[in-house]
Amino acid sequence: MTTTPRTEAAAVKHGRTADQLCSTGLRNQWYAVCPSDFVEPGGMRRVTRLGEDWLLFRRSDGTLHMLEDRCPHRGARLSLGKHLGDRIACWYHGVEVDGHGTVTSVPALPGCTIEGKSLVANPPVMEAGGAVFAYFGDARHPEPVEMVLPEPLTSEDTHAILCYAEWNVPWRFAVENVLDPMHGAFLHHESHTMADGDTQARFRIRETGRGFFFEKTDQRGVNFDWVELCRTGVDWMDLEIPYPPSAGPGGPFGIVGMATPIDERSCGVFFWRYRRVTGWQRDTWRFLYKTLIEQRHWQVLEQDRVMLEGLPADADQAENLYQHDLGVVRVRRMYRTEAEKQAAALQG
Fold it and tell me: What is the phi-psi region of residue 304: left when phi exceeds 0, alpha when psi lies from -120 to 50, beta otherwise?
């Protein structure tokens, strides 16, 4: 796991309304940005996250940096520039910016007043579980909050495999989909793991110190029977699906999920598939997953993608919800309340 320092320019500079925050993501927390292997040593990659354009670049020694994709001189995209090892040279006029957002050189005018100044936002970054994480703060909260990663990504007795995709759906739709366990018994009924169990159920919300469980009251360990939403500096969801002995060692199959806004209409989804295995059991589980099970799981995710991308953008404005939707209602209210709080703080 690697980190990079922060500069004064790293805060998200522009205030947003509550509606904009709900659309492009809450601030003052960490988000998964992309798989780590998206940026090779000595390479760089442009990404859009939370409605803003960013440049990820990695030194040859593996150190990762993240910069606002905007040259401080004339606003050109740094991602069109040249990777110089520990800095990026803008293609437009050659202005060089290091990984901390500081202008190190203005070749056309040595000694220029912008040299030595931190003028490019550079969010703190961290790598874990095969993914890059970044902190997105607002003007009042530039310093990163503590992030406690999901246990399956840090535990020595658990092996997690990251699967990443980009969906053309608002990020909140992806979160709400996981907070809706009952869809597993219908949308995924033909899958290899969710064909069992009753198609009727009662649900409850159970509070925890880090979020809440949304769970069936009359069925456990049969299908997609519960999900926990956790807020630990980064928002994530955890769930388990029972596995037959033929799927190898490790007990229940777990999934840690995250959704990161790309913009108002699309998001990146991160699903770590995990089991509690060590030693030879870890090797057996990974072999079975890569050779047999992974393709089936992508088929399940494809069902989610097709369903969610088929929803109209205003689907959540004309609904008739019932008891099974308590988890969806709860997460909507939670995020709306936080968005209004953040927007009000920036306007105060």
Answer: alpha
Residue 199 belongs to domain spanning: 151-336
Q: Rounded to two decimals, what is the model's pTM?
A: 0.92
- Residue 245 exposure: Cα atoms within 13 Å on the Cβ side: 0
Quick one: 313 exposed, middle or buried, by C-beta within 10 A (0-12, 13-18, 19+)?
exposed
3 found inside a domain: no
Residues 87 and 159 in one domain: no
Residues 132 and 201 in one domain: no
Please report the DSSP string for 76-114 in residue order: --GGGSEE-SSEEE-TTT--EEETTSBEEE-TTSTT-TT
Classify residue 146 by its DSSP letter.
Answer: P
Residue 31 placed within a domain? yes
Beta-bridge mates of residue 241: 253
Locus of tokens 């990695």:
58
CA 285 to chain centre: 25
State the 10-residue block means of pLDDT for the chain, 348 residues long. Answer: 43 72 97 98 97 97 97 98 97 98 98 97 97 96 96 94 96 96 83 66 92 87 83 96 77 92 97 93 89 88 96 90 93 97 90
